[in-house]
Amino acid sequence: MPRERVSAFQVSSRKSFDLYRAESILEASPGRTVPRCPHFGVCGGCATQHADQRTQMAAKQRGLEENLARIGKVAPETLLPIVYGEAWGYRRRARFSVRRVDKKGGVLVGFRERRSTWVAEMGECHVLPANISALILPLRELVEKLSIRARVPQIEVAAADNATALVFRHLLPLRDEDTAWLRMFAEAHGVQVWLQPGGPDSVHALHPEGGELYYDLPEFGVRLRFRPTDFTQVNFGVNRALVSRALRLLDPQPGERIADLFCGLGNFSLPMARRGAEVIGFEGSADLVARARENAAANGLVAQFEKADLFKSDLAHWGAFGKVLLDPPREGAVEIVKALPAGVRRIVYVSCDPATLARDAGILVHTRGYRLAAAGVVNMFPHTAHVESIALFEAGPA
Hints:
Blueprint: E1 5-13, E2 18-27, H1 53-72, E3 78-79, E4 93-101, E5 106-110, H2 130-133, H3 136-145, E6 154-159, E7 164-169, H4 176-189, E8 192-196, E9 204-207, E10 213-217, E11 222-226, H5 236-250, E12 257-261, H6 269-274, E13 278-283, H7 286-298, E14 304-307, E15 323-326, H8 334-339, E16 346-351, H9 354-366, E17 370-378, E18 388-395
Parallel strand pairs: 3-17, 7-8, 12-13, 12-15, 13-14, 15-16
Antiparallel strand pairs: 1-2, 4-5, 4-6, 6-7, 8-9, 10-11, 16-18, 17-18
Helix pairs in contact: 1-9
C-alpha cells in the first residue's frame, strides 16, 4: 500500500517493472486494516480487503483520473463525489464454481482461488448477503448427493428484492432423484432453483415453476422483472444511487428525445420515461429488449425498445436525439461515439472500465468537440480492483 515499508522477495522481472511479494510489513499504511474474511488471500473474489474503504476509493479515483489523462488526454472540469454503498453483503449476483475434489473430502462450492483455476475451500463469504453466504456449505452437501455430482460445473446466484434464485449448470441429464433433491433444497432454504442443461436459452425454472424475480427503483416508482441469467448490476443499493445520479446529470425533461444505448432491462430508460422523456432504448440482446418492453408495460410507461448491434449501428436513421445515455460493456463504445448524430447536446456515460472510458472520452473531446464536464467513481464493487465510473459530456464551450 502507499507509503509502506516492507520486506519482500522478487517474483519476476518484466521490461518495465519488477514484481515482488511482501513477506512482512515493517511500517504499515494508516489505511491498512485487518481483512474481515478468513478466506482473503486464497479466494480470488476480493483483492483489497486489507485496505479501508477510504483508501480503496482514493485509489480508484486516482486510477480514473490517471486513465483519463494518460489515454484520453483529458481532465474533468469537476470531480463528482464518490458514490458509496454498503461495504459488506452487497453482492447480489455471483457465479460459484463447483468441483469434486476427493482429497478435500468431496464437492467444493465457491469462488476460484487467486490466480488459479482451483476452487477455494470456503464456508462463508462476507460480500454476499448473509442468506446466500449461509448456502455455501449446504450447497456442497446437496451437489454431493446428486448422481451427476462431477458434472455440475457452476451454480449462478441471483438475489432479487423478492427472492433468491440458484441456476444449476449441469452437463448430463438429471435423474428423478436428482430433481427431488433440488426441489427439497429449494423448499428447505426458501430459494428458487433453475436449471441450465445447455446454452443460455436452455435456462428454465424447476421449483417453483412460475417463480419471478424483480428489483425496485423506489425513487422513480419503477419495478424491473428479470430472469436469473439476465444482466443486472451486482449491487442494488449502489445501482439505485447510480440511476439517481445519472438522471440528475442528464436532466431528462418532458418531451425530450433521449437515446439509452445498451439499455438492458430498462434500468435507466424507465426512470427517464417516468420523468416524461421520449425514450428509445437500444440493446443487442433480443431477450433483453423483450424484457424491457414487458417492464415498460408493467409499469404503465411509454418507452420504445429496439434491438441493434451497437458496435456497428448508425443511430442517425432513428431521428434526432437531444441527449444520450451510454452504459456499454467493458469494450466501451468507440464506434458509437465516433458516429453519434449531430445535435446531441449532453451525454452521460456509465463505464465499467476506466481505460475504455478514457479512450472514448478522448474521441468525444478532441474529435467531436464535447467538454468533459464531470466525472467520478462509483463504489459498485467494494474490496475489488474493479472501477465503475460515470462521466458527463456537454457540447460546445464552457
